[in-house]
Amino acid sequence: MTPHTLLAERRLPAEIDTMAELEAYLNAALRLEHATIPPYLTALYSLHPGANSDARHLIRVVAVEEMLHLTLVANVMNAVGLRVDLTADDFVPRYPAHLPSGEIDFLVSVQPFSQAAVTTFLNIERPAKAPNESSRLLPRPDLGAGTVLAASPIDPSRRFYSIGEFYEEIDRGLRHLDHLYRAEGRELFTGDVARQVTAEYFYSGGGEIVVVHDLASALKALELITEQGEGLGGGIYDGEGELSHYYRFQQLQLGHYYQQGDVPGRPSGPPLDVDFTAVYPVAIDAALADYPAGSPVREAAQRFNGTYGDFLAHLTAAYDGEPRKLLEAVPWMFRLRDDIEHLIRNPFPGRPGVHASPVFTRAPEERS
Amino acid sequence: MIFPEGAAARTDTTDVAGRVYDVVIVGAGISGAIIADRLSREGRSVLLLEAAPADDLTISGYETYLNRFYGTAMKDNQAPYPVLPPVPMPRSTDARPLPPGGGPNTGGYLVQDGPHSTDTTYTRVLGGTTLHWEAKILRMLPEDFELSRRYGQGLPWPLGYDELEPLYREAEREIGVSADIEDQRYLGLHYPPDYVYPMRGLPASFLDQTVAKGIDGTSIRVGDDEEIPIRVRPFPQGRNGIPNPAYDAGRGFTPVGAVSTHQVEEGGRCQGNNNCVPICPVQAKYHAGKTLARTLHRDVDLLAQAVAYKVHTDPENGRVTRIEYRRYQDPQSTAYETGFAQGRTYVLATNAIENARLMLASGLQDRADLIGRNLMDHAYLLTWARLPEVAGTMRGTNCTSGITDLRGGRFRRDRASFSIDIHNDGWGWATGAPVTDLLRIVDQDHQYGFGLRRSLVDQVSTQLLLAHMIEVLPDRDNRVTVDPRYRDELGNMRPVISFKVPDYTMRGAAFARDLSRQLFGKLGAEDHTGYDPAEYGYVEFGGDGYRILGGNHLAGTHVMGTSPATSVVDDHQRSWEHENLYLVGGGSMPTIGTANTTLTSTALCLRTAKHLIQELRRQDRPVTLATIGAR
Question: Closest to A270 (Cβ–Cβ): which among B252, B261, B265?
């Protein structure tokens, strides 16, 4: 492929025009991918042991693939020489947080597995293409509390119609910048290949990781993210034959598994069972300050909060030149699971019928 | 891996009665599954008769095994699997010491006639013993196939390492083996120059590294003329690891994860859980259900809850005419109906004990009186010690490395070779740790709370257990028989086991015990080994006492060879006396060396499958009839 054919492909206007703007977008992408993980993990571990096997596996797979998406964004950033940092104070949103949606804005909460949680998951993963070019970016109403994700990092007053449209913008921006760089005789993809996370470092049976070293591989990495979320070209499966996240979650509502050949909304596979009562009623969007000072549950919540911060620091190191460190993510996930389970199996002090819940958001400095 | 929905129940006795299959296979474990897979791939019709109940394999069905395992106090090999009256199976918990010269122990499924009382087991569920196996997966050494010629021991093999080598590779692909090739070139083991295993080696545990630091490079004096340097070496594992991009000339390898009727993403890689035996929580460990799931998408009928009762033959020519089976409707009841399965060829793929049991119960002892004889199983001798420092015991999978240098050598003229496993699960096998430690710390040391937790962690994480897997040679008097007095609840005659640990093996055990004292000394570890004469498995030898445990590596009851006078099957596992019958699996092995038997048995089954494909093609060729009176 010559620069001319790439130029010819760039028909659409891009908001991204500089490396700094690309960095802003990719940093937003990291936050977006990560922001879904605390809600998924909390719903997953709120399931009673021995019950809800179907739901457990569905949520687990999506959570693992969100971590894959995080890693793919990191690979794109490393490929263009950008540094990845998941340790900023505001990296983890304060829940409830906003994610973009076409029709109505909805809030994402850290909450137990429930009908409402499934609805939220479907909203997050909803396949949504803007009806026309002019509605890709919409004016952002003042949403008040919560972090707005997939807003335009360049113009905070605007937000994207969907996560798919957000990635479409990065796609256009990469093509555009690649073209600009070439025109100036420069190379956009100058990152050290040794910083890339390769398939051997990501816990997975398949070879889904895309090593990014040029425009084509960067676009492929982004395409995998959107396809795994919402399917390929409106279908229910992605290009690898895997059911997309939206349709995985939809199975929980429709009570049947999809199988190859099915059309959206009509899964014809084996039935699946969901028991919304076999769930620990964990507190929704708990903050550390909600736990009584000095209580053992407060201590456990603080311990988890610290461990989660350490985990993000560990991931940062893996994405910042030490990809081998990603292998340790597996024992890290076991540690996080154990810490979360300590919380959710204990009652919330002073709130009858409510269980303790993990707090992911970095705690502000303690007030005396 | 997608299991075809409904495949487990799509065949009933009426369907079976109305068909003549190309191949009827008894047993849906790894051997049966692989032969069914290869034959059906060629368009052949296959019936699999399975004694156990079989629902469609689903992730939630697998989790009923897991939850049973988690919920039970006794974590033996069969803990996850249902105990059902129509398909009893041996359990280590049934083993009892036998009184000297006393009557048999009839309390378990195996009737134990002694003098040795074994706790060996096999699992009767869909997928067989690969559900509970450890998945350590070694090739036999080239010299293992020549034991008889080189050292005058054991029975001769009709095949050598070089003939099996390509089949070993095919088996390593089917099972999905993780190992680094550079670790696996020793004692003559060889591979094509560009060969790598499908997946990279799984990481050695911290315990392995601790032991390696203490003993690597030590030279062991063996007999008068041999000095063998030893080192800690990783074992190849039938568990998913990091796919090796160099595999298959750079085409790489895609691991096979968990099986279910819908898409699941689990088990693509081992997570390091510590209960490979008796069940991998995520199906990263191979089990035959992975092969069965693929196979059942083809013209393969699976008839479950059908226990083979009798092999019927034509008295004129010895050919098998049908398999009589007893089919129960309710797994909790022993009511059954009788059915018959017919094929052009028949494969018995149960295991060494059950294959022999079925043949003998059918009145089909061969003329050389070999069926059921030469029963082999690895003899396990455990030694255990406390390391001077915390070594991370209980972390990592059951077993990741060991010492394999004493698998071969000239000493095999006189005594058995062995392979040593370093057990990451502490003294559990020998003493019942960590539960027994917990009880002692509570009851004797009166610890509680944080002190209890600390003591338990400190005591368990310094435990070192070495398991010596010692070769057992074929012996005519070690055997499986049947006796009409002993039947299971479906009326099948139960296996009667007569077994004595051969002196050749005990000489190896005595050497192993002595060696472990040397190794513990090197490691500064305090030897805690002790064998209780009141427990089953106790053997006195040369004035000392030992405890020999079973290895679940059953072999030898229908050995292969070059003549019907000295063997039951030929080098394709075809019965000499029943030309359309194949007895497959470990039972065909004339010796077992120091390799867990599954890989070699699988390689032999792949050879049988290739032969069967040729044989059926040959039979299908139009026959040119000679014209009478032609000139």
Answer: B261
